[in-house]
């Protein structure tokens, strides 16, 4: 291949790659629009802030606490709920044992329950009241298995509260648990403790700062990792 032909070949490859990326951008924008259409708000101001969502054929109302970082619905939770719903054949949750870590408001746990899973929703003790309220309000008499709410502080008393001999989870779910906080080591330890050889981790996150992104590399030293996600468009300057 001469230099002219080589340059032309490279140019064509770049054009095809740009076309693929542009197509992915358009696809991602459609997905984002579809996810946002699942969201609705109360028609009137209420004494307790809440957001509504349509997933798994149900209307879900989530009570939030704006003064608490863990009691707000973050975008990664919506992405994971959409993923569970649209990939329900590949990831069939019916009768599967599922644990969500850092469940927050409980939206992901609720959707997994509505899709047929036996769910344990976990978070810090100060978040369990609101979490229990949301889970009960949105799953009672609607699910095959009534979900449980349980305290889980990452890295603390894992064997005592979740003994490996009796706790086997088909799926571990997590949404937006990796951000700028000092407990990334404990988070990795928790993933490792809860995960058996055949456990699948479904984890949605936003790539942020270098410290958080480094966690992905550490995660990959312990687990097989497959990344699926929206195309990250570079901002225009």
Automatic annotation (TrEMBL):
A Pfam family reported for this protein in Swiss-Prot or TrEMBL: Methyltransf_16
An annotated GO BP: methylation
Record's protein name: Protein-lysine methyltransferase METTL21E
Source species, domain of life: Eukaryota
Entry coiled-coil feature ranges: none
UniProt GO MF annotations: methyltransferase activity
Signal peptide boundaries: none
This protein's UniProt keywords: Methyltransferase, S-adenosyl-L-methionine, Transferase
Gene3D superfamilies reported in the protein's UniProt record: Vaccinia Virus protein VP39
